[in-house]
Design a protein that fits this description.
Number of helices of chain A: 20
CATH topology of the largest domain in chain A: Rossmann fold
Strand content of chain A: 5-15%
Shape of chain A: globular
Helix content of chain A: 40-55%
Structural class of chain B: alpha/beta
Distance between the termini of chain A: 40 Å
Number of strands of chain B: 8
Strand order of the largest sheet of chain B: 3-2-4-1-5-6-7-8
Largest sheet of chain A: 8 strands, mixed
Radius of gyration of chain A: 25 Å
Strand order of the largest sheet of chain A: 3-2-4-1-5-6-7-8
Strand content of chain B: 5-15%
Oligomer: heterodimer
Distance between the termini of chain B: 17 Å
CATH superfamily of the largest domain in chain A: P-loop containing nucleotide triphosphate hydrolases
Radius of gyration of chain B: 21 Å
CATH architecture of the largest domain in chain A: 3-Layer(aba) Sandwich
Bound molecules: guanosine-5'-triphosphate, magnesium ion
Number of helices of chain B: 11
């Protein structure tokens, strides 16, 4: 649905190749596209302004590099700056006392309750004895929801028939008496402008003095994210932010907005409905996602989940070594089909989201692509460059498609190869990744 | 719009402040309606959660109006934009939602996680009950922990009949039973709750279309309405949600919730522009009376007055 930023910038710089420096004018033109891309990704407009000003300062006067186009170079500046802003301080979940206390807050429907259970499960797996506290007394059956989840993961849930601040205070006592740690407090969803309920949170905070106060934000949040985050942070002085529902296809620009207006680190991301679907936050991944540049790591991981590991490794190797042939492409299509929504999978491959934007990703068009590839000889699949006019005509006839369709596929494939090349040597070295909650 | 107008207005006030004041600032900088001003207005629209494509389309329409009428004074851009926004609603059905003409009138509610489906069902049921209708609600979210209990509590508060199954049970079976039971009981309305799911999960989306097919076995022309619930705070992703839910489930209307906050509800414009789908209801709070019928004229005017 979205063009990738890189591709748009290619357009801006098309006529400018060979210039020695990024000039003021070509930077200006490209920054317009950058601004657009960020807005499309739901980054708040004020945040966009500030961010773009920073990028401008960094890009001005840079020597153009011979190895990459000016467009790619600006993308790199943007990407690096995004990583810098999103990353900042690396702050894992930390408890200063025993029992450790972690308070979860946010808007209605952002995914707090599920997150509590995910965090509890994480500590349970590390042989801790966590306690969850049900302090949402407003939403019908919210307490029950946490209790059901608690049973699923065999973690006790504390609840008494009192007001939320009192429930939380009692819970700390209970944890102490029973040697439970850490204590995870689930609170009711509330609007940031609901003064009464925001006061309640303040109250809870002063009663239990939490080590961690995490704002839970839906990755799909739009422009309003800044208002929400500002209010919660002013009320509670957050220690961090968790982004949820990242298993969807939202670009997640809210992450940048929230980070910018609160200055608080993004700590965790929630990536599915299963209680094990919790990860630490990786600034690089988020930056690529916001820019619509795909996410090789997620792709490889998703592949590993669904396809066997060997297949995934093969895919990863292909993508790293830039030896993707049409044959591989065909094989991958077969594998990918097993992994669920083709569109969402393809979107994770750098460049593909734009390469496929004219093609309806429905079964019938996929079948046509398959038919085209199947009508090629093995040689042609390995080296599409040998496909001259007469070969293309033969393939079109053989696959029951048109030469235009064949051309289009080849063009798209070429773009994809180019993008993969660009990402090569990028940041998908898994060995460098820390555990979920280091320390 | 009843007593809750104030709530909506206070939420929308923020929208107005943003949209109108931003455009005012832009107009102040440009005497003439030129490319630069239009570019700026387009960005302002996007920054109200209106989708990029819709913003582009609105600007195209604006340009056309500017050319047709030979206007070049930037002060007039407000009036033109207001017209452009209203233009979007011209072909959209305004059929009143609560006039149910089938018995039972079957409504299926779908959407991604946490958007406000269950609460909206309570609110809709409440309205029908207030109108003297007999209502059945179906707990076909058999997946999320305690979803059934949540709906049961609402059924109790609203005063309507509940059909439920087991947690982890077959959602389609619950939906089917609810329609059968409503027919047997002579109820007027059936509202079916479903588990929240991201539109990107193909298998879960397919499960939902199965629920819909199975409902038809109990009553061939049901469901009479399939409504998608969107969270008003959602940004550009709202359109992707509409796209997939429409393709998979042929939804025929939208509910936008949480407009009692400061979110802008800009998705409304994108939905009508791109999909010609009516926004039928809006949620403006957590209580069962916090529901309004959507009125396009009021919505646009609220942005400009
Ligand atoms: N402020 C506000 N909150 C709302 C509105 N509608 C729903 N909510 C709240 O949003 C939260 C989620 O609502 P639910 O009705 O449980 O949402 P759902 O879509 O059924 O959620 P799942 O079934 O978990 O996918 C609850 O805390 C509701 O009280 C609204 O219009 N305004
Ligand atoms: Mg629900």
């Amino acid at each position: 649905m979205f063009d990738t930023l890189s591709e748009k910038l290619e357009g801006v710089f098309k006529t400018l190749r060979g210039h020695g420096k990024l000039t003021e004018q070509n930077i200006k033109d490209s920054l317009k596209e950058v601004r657009r891309a960020l807005l499309e990704a739901d980054v708040n407009f004020k945040v966009v302004k500030q961010f773009v000003a920073n990028v401008e300062a960094k890009a001005s006067g840079q020597e153009t590099l011979r190895s990459i186009s000016p467009g790619e170079q600006v993308v790199k500046v943007v990407h690096d700056e995004l990583i810098a802003v999103l990353g900042g301080q690396n702050a894992p979940i930390a408890f200063r006392s025993t029992p450790g206390k972690l308070l979860v807050c946010g808007l209605q429907g952002s995914g707090k309750t599920t997150l509590c259970a995910k965090i509890a499960l994480h500590y349970k797996k590390k042989n801790a004895r966590p306690l969850m506290v049900a302090a949402d007394i407003y939403r019908p059956a919210a307490v029950k929801q946490l209790q059901v989840l608690g049973k699923q993961i065999d973690v006790p849930v504390f609840h008494v028939d009192k007001k939320p601040p009192q429930i939380c205070e009692d819970a700390v006592e209970y944890a102490r008496a029973n040697n439970l740690h850490p204590v995870i407090f689930d609170t009711a969803g509330r609007l940031h402008i609901d003064t009464e309920l925001m006061d309640e949170l303040r109250n809870i905070k002063s009663k239990i003095n939490p080590d961690e106060i995490l704002l839970v934000a839906d990755a799909m949040t739009g422009q309003d994210a800044v208002n929400v985050a500002t209010q919660f942070n002013e009320t509670l002085d957050l220690t961090g932010v968790v982004l949820t529902k990242l298993d969807g296809d939202a670009r997640g620009g809210a992450a940048l907005s929230i980070r910018q207006v609160t200055g608080k680190p993004l700590k965790l991301v929630s990536v599915g409905e299963k209680l094990s679907d919790l990860e630490v936050f990786y600034p690089e991944r988020m930056a690529s996602r916001i820019l619509g540049m795909g996410d090789i790591v997620s792709l490889v991981e998703k592949a590993q989940e669904t396809i066997d590991v060997k297949e995934a490794e093969k895919l990863e190797k292909k993508l790293r070594k830039d030896t993707l042939t049409l044959e591989d492409f065909y094989q991958q299509l077969q594998q990918l089909k097993k992994m669920g929504s083709l569109e969402s999978i393809l979107k994770m491959i750098p460049g593909v989201s734009s390469a496929i934007r004219d093609v309806q990703i429905d079964e019938s068009s996929m079948k046509r692509v398959e038919a085209i590839i199947l009508s090629m000889t093995p040689d042609e699949r390995a080296k599409p460059t040998i496909l001259n006019g007469s070969r293309r005509a033969r393939i079109a006839a053989g696959s029951g498609t048109s030469v235009q369709e064949v051309n289009r596929l080849l063009r798209q494939f070429e773009q994809m190869q180019k993008m993969i090349k660009q990402m090569r040597g990028g940041k998908f070295n898994k060995k460098m990744m820390p555990g979920l909650f280091p320390g | 719009m009843g007593f809750s107008l104030k709530k909506l207005a206070s939420g929308l006030l923020k929208t107005k402040e943003n949209l109108v004041s931003k455009i005012k600032a832009a107009v102040g900088l440009h005497k003439k309606i030129d490319g630069a001003l239009l570019d700026e207005i387009e960005e302002i629209l996007i920054s109200s959660d209106i989708s990029v494509e819709t913003s582009t389309a609105i600007i195209a329409n604006l340009k056309e109006k500017v050319a047709q009428r030979g206007i070049d004074n930037s002060d007039e851009v407000f009036q033109l934009l207001r017209e452009c926004l209203k233009d979007l609603f011209v072909d959209i059905s305004t059929e009143p939602f609560f006039a149910c003409n089938k018995k039972p009138y079957v409504i299926m509610i779908v959407g991604v996680n946490g958007t406000g489906k269950t609460t909206s069902i309570a609110k809709i049921a409440r309205r029908f009950v207030n109108d003297g209708k007999k209502v059945t609600i179906a707990a076909a979210d058999t997946f999320r922990a305690a979803a059934i209990d949540q709906l049961a509590i609402w059924a109790d508060r609203v005063g309507c009949h509940l059909v439920k199954g087991q947690e982890g049970g077959d959602a389609a079976a619950v939906a089917y039973d609810s329609v059968q039971s409503a027919i047997a009981r002579g109820d007027d309305v059936v509202i079916i709750d479903t588990a929240g799911r991201l539109h990107t999960k193909t298998n879960l989306m397919e499960e939902l279309s199965k629920v819909k097919r199975v409902i038809k076995k109990a009553m061939p022309d049901a469901p009479h309405r399939t409504l998608l619930v969107l969270d008003g705070t959602t940004g550009q992703n709202a359109l992707q949600q509409v796209e997939v839910f429409k393709k998979m489930l042929d939804i025929d209307g939208i509910i936008i919730t949480k407009l009692d906050g400061t979110a802008k509800g800009g998705a409304v414009f994108s939905i009508v522009e791109r999909y010609k789908l009516p926004v039928v209801l809006i949620g403006i709070g957590e209580q069962m009376d916090d529901l309004d019928e959507f009125k396009a004229h009021d919505f646009v005017e609220a942005l400009f007055t």
